[in-house]
Structure formats: C-alpha cells, structure tokens
Structure prediction request, 560 residues.
Amino acid sequence: MNNTYQDVMNRKNEIMKKSVGLDYDKYELEGIGFDFELMMNDQGYDIEKIKKIQSENMVGNTPLIELKNISRYARKYAKPGYGARIFLKDEAANISGSFKARRAALSVNQAKKLGYKGVIAATSGNYGAAVAALAAKAGLECIIVQECFDSKNISQPEILEKARKCEAYGAEVIQLSVGPELFYSFLKLIEETGYFNASLYSPYGVKGIETLGHEIANDIMDKFGKFPEAVVITNAGGGNLTGTARGLKDAGAIDTKIIGASVNLYGLHMASDIDFNRKSFTTGHTGFGIPFAVFPDRSDVPRSAARPLRYMDRYVMVNQGSVFFMTEALAILEGMERGPAGNTSLAAAFSLAQSMKETDIIVVQETEYTGAGKHLLPQLSFARKNGIELKFGNPIKEIPGENIILPKNGSYIKHQDIDLIELKKSYIKRYKDIDLTSLDYKFLCEELNLTLDKIKDLLK
Amino acid sequence: MIDKGTYVRIRKTVFKPEERSNNLPEETKKVPFKMWIKGYLLEDSDLFDIVTIKTITGRLETGRLKEAKPPYKHSYGDFIPEILTLRDIIKNDLFGDRDE
Prediction:
C-alpha cells in the first residue's frame, strides 16, 4: 500500500467509515444537504441514556454557581437597573477537568460497544485528556495526536501540560510539528491500529454535551422558576455550542439566547510555523471558530455534527488580555482558580451582562482545570519570551501576535460583535453558481437558521 | 550508551519540505513535518542514533534518538509583575482604594 500524502488522503473516506462504525451515506439527501436530525437521533442515545452513561463515569451534574462578586463588579459599569446575575457552570469538576469529558464518555462508550480495542483522537486540547481518562476507565487503549511544536521544537506550555495529563491516564501521545498534515498522520495511525476515531465532530462527540444544556435549563428553572435569558458558550469547532444549545432547547429553554464567544486572534494564520507560538490561546479562538462555523464539514468526519450557525443567536469576541484579566478576577473575587481558555465566555459575559436587566440571568457554561503550563502565569511568561509585548491599556487595540493588552480597569472589558450575516454569506458563497432544488433550500434554511427569502437574498 | 529497555523519546521526519501539502504558508512549507514519540528502546544505542522503540500501546516506531528518560519541563514560568498589578486593579475597582 502506498503512503504518500495524496495516497492516504485518497483513502480518507474508506478509513473514516471503518473507524467511526457509522455509515454517513445513510443520511445524505439528494443535492447538497443531509439529514442532520436523523444522524443525531439515529445512534441509540437519548438524553436519559446519556445521563446514565455519564453519571457512571463521573461526568456531568457539575455545580452551577452564582458569581456574586463578579456580577456586582459588572454592575458597576451598567446603568441603574442593569447588570445581569452571572452564573458559572463549573465543568472543571468533571473527570479529567473539563466539559470535554461529556463528549468523550459517549465516544468511548460507543467504541467499547462496537468492540474496538482502542480509541484515537486528534486534539491538542482538553479533549485528549478526556478521551484518555475515559478510555482508561473502559479498559481501552488510547492514542492522542497533538499539533505541538514549531520547527524550532518549541511548544506552547499549555499543550505540553495536556500531553502530560494524557500520559498520566496511560495514553500514548504523538506530537507533531505545525501543519495540516496532522490529518495524514492521524489517518495512517487509524489504519495501522484499527482503533475507533473518537472524533469531536461525530454525533457522539456532540450529543454528549446535550446534558450540559439540560442541566443549566433545569437548575435555573428549579431555583428561579424561569429559564436563563442567555447562555454564553466558548466557540471553537462548534460542538460545544451545538450540543449545549440542543440540550437547552430539548429541556424547553427555547427563548434562551445562545451566544458564542471566541478569543480574537484575527491576523494569525493557523498553519503558520511562526504564528503558532505567537498566540496565547490554543483553542476557543476565532482561528477555529470562524472557519468551522462557515464550513463545518472541514472536520475529520464526512458530516460534522457540530453546526453552530444553526443555533447561534449572536457571536462575540474578546481579546486575550481580557480573558487573562477575568481569569485573575475569578480567582481573587470568587476563590476559583481555573484555566484561562475556559474563561473566554466569562470575559464575554462580564461585558454582555451590563446591557441586560439586573433581574436577568446569564450563564457561563464552562470552566476548565488549571495547572503548570495551563495558567495565566506560564502563558503570559511564554508570550513575553516569544517577544509579545505585555501592557495595560485598552484591549480593543490589542494586535494578536504582537501584543497582549490587559484592560487598565474593568470598564475596558468589552466584547465585539461578529456579524453573523457575514458568516452566513461566507457559508452560502459556494452554492452561488449551483441550481438549487427546494430540498436544497430547505437544508440551507435549517443550516443557517434563516427564512427562504433571506437565503435567496444572500445568494444574489 | 543508552541501555535497551530505557524509556526514550525519538523524532522522525514524516515529510521533507518538498513532500509537504500544497496550500501552506511559506514559512511552514520550507520546514519539514516532524513527529515525536516516546517508548522503550529495543536495542542498546547512543544518542542521535536511528533506533526503533516500542510505544505504550505496543506499536513500533523508528526515528532519531533525542532524549533518554524524558522529563516534563513545563512549569509556572517566570515571575510576571503584571499579575500583581491586575490584582490591585481588580480589588480597587470593586472595593475602592485600600491605601487610605
């Protein structure tokens, strides 16, 4: 068998099909679309079953805490009667220290059920630790493939920590230099081992998060007799947002605003050997959030289950300095020391809460564990070593890759809106010169959460 | 010499620059695509030899021997005075100037 880059890429579909035990052809429709709901609901996992699997694995039912001091802090900058109550879902309490355990619990359960010997996942993030921990618990082998080093063999401290954590759970960690050829190495490893591809983008990888939306809706309803007005969700590949939104809606919270939040890394190229170590966030940023929103099927499965534009009511970004600021505020005002990347949505909520009524509730739906490498100290220290200027000022002026601007006080923490219609335009662009059928239009209306008239308008 | 059976880290080149994917930024295209793997050394070897290792999942991999008994070196980094300033800003914002 030939193993050049192109040879392996040409075998992609065949390799993928074997490694997720799922026939995606079954969900394809005539034309451009596929049956997303059927794909999600056809895997034998309803919400009760997911809850059961997760609770047996020390996943889910995490605390939902009101951040009273941070709410008061945000209110200081709001007009009278404004400044919503900010709640935080402490997902660091899951086995492996992040919400990613919810996704891994289902993927690993499916791998075990189908009789695979091991699981494999491509991730430099918390998902690796989650898959490794749950594979350990299920008695399966585990390989995690990370994009880790630049050409000078330098790695982000955060990624090194995640490698350590995966190894602590007995997984094999394969580390690669910067570049999309990661996918090639990943496919070859799947072929070699015959392991299950625990993709973040499979129906299991996304359905596992529906319980998070359920818990938020039910907890707030039990305590306050209403659903939250808004939930802020850190957005990268889109799975976190898709799963949480589906869970909220399934629990009845159909009017809760779904707000995506990403760290602003505009201008940095994700496949650049130079830019790789000039950023301070390795996930939850616009470099993943935007491309995966406008083209979800760029992922490692034929049809991604993460489709954020279906659910997002609003998409905002915050700068790196503001996230570090809020990470410190969470520690010293609320006694919660958590990892920076997970606090992206907290920084956004601090600003968003100021334009909501003081009786409103805004929920930040995740936190993540912290430790050596994965903490504002080593991350800022690493940035400074790489020539990034660190200063206080107005974070709106931050230039990713050149400086990190820490807000000179809380009033400078401001979200910036990303125009959703522009993203939807980018999504739809590739269908401009195609004769679309009524079935295609129906699919696009669902994909982009727009009326038929609006879709036709965007295609002009 | 490093004894057979020692836990080590190797590095191998997966693609030379000319074999890499098209569609890469210039700075990425001109460097090789490399892989780092850990495992048990199958034969007595010297540093920088081309060696074969057996990984924790039982796979065999071949590459250049870079490090024996690889430690974790990531840490909490250097002292960053700005973090102390952040604390002052946050406390002053919320509780007022405490120096008075």
In short: Residues 1-71 of chain B form a domain with the SH3 type barrels. fold (CATH 2.30.30). Chain B touches chain A at residues 14-15, 19-21, 23-25, 27-28, 31-38, 55-57, 59, 72-78, 80, 82-83, 85-87, 89-94 (CB under 8 Å). Chain B has two helices and four strands. Residues 28 and 96 of chain B are 50 Å apart (CA to CA).
